[in-house]
Specification:
globular; binds zinc ion; single chain; HIT family, subunit A; 139 residues; methyltransferase activity; methyltransferase; transferase; 5-stranded antiparallel β-sheet; alpha+beta; binds guanosine-5'-monophosphate
Length: 139
């Protein structure tokens, strides 16, 4: 897609530090390393994000993640890894070509701070919400 920075990386029009490539998928180092080894895995096909993605594209994209993640862990010596995907601006997406962030984590400390706030469970509300989501997923 014209003017898409990741399509330009796929086409080789702008440089990237590639770590994996096949027919459908490319992985390269994020230009801004949130932790050492921060890698992006993208479909070569232009698609906005997971909310827009076909099952076929998702299958090839997500299927590559464990192999790339394991190689990344070995190469960096990371103790763990966060795997994150942002969809739409409200979720922090800034590049609108789907990508999965692989963020190696280091037990002796790194700069990343990802935490969920714990809330008291409201079981009736959870049941009602699950039902309405389930109806939409199956529609
Ligand atoms: P998002 O915020 O959309 O989930 O993540 C976009 C990521 O793309 C950011 O972490 C940003 O650093 C990275 N990025 C933006 N432009 C480039 C680029 O030209 N090359 C590389 N390698 N990464 C980029
Ligand atoms: Zn694109």
């Amino acid at each position: 897609m014209e003017n898409c920075i990741f399509c330009k990386i796929v086409a080789g029009e702008i440089p990237s530090s590639k770590v994996y490539e096949d027919e459908d998928v490319l992985a390269f180092l994020d230009i801004s390393q949130a932790t050492p080894g921060h890698t992006l895995v993208i479909p070569k096909e232009h698609v906005r994000n997971v909310l827009d993605m076909s099952a076929d594209t998702a299958q090839s994209l997500f299927a590559r993640v464990p192999k790339i993640a394991r190689g990344l862990q070995k190469a960096t010596g990371a103790d763990g890894m966060n795997i994150i995907n942002n969809n739409e601006e409200a979720a922090g997406q800034t590049v609108f070509h789907a990508h999965i962030h692989l963020l190696p984590r280091y037990a002796d400390g790194d700069e990343l701070d990802i935490r969920f706030t714990a809330h008291e469970p409201d079981f009736p509300a959870l049941a009602a919400l699950a039902q309405s989501i389930s109806q939409e997923v199956q529609a």
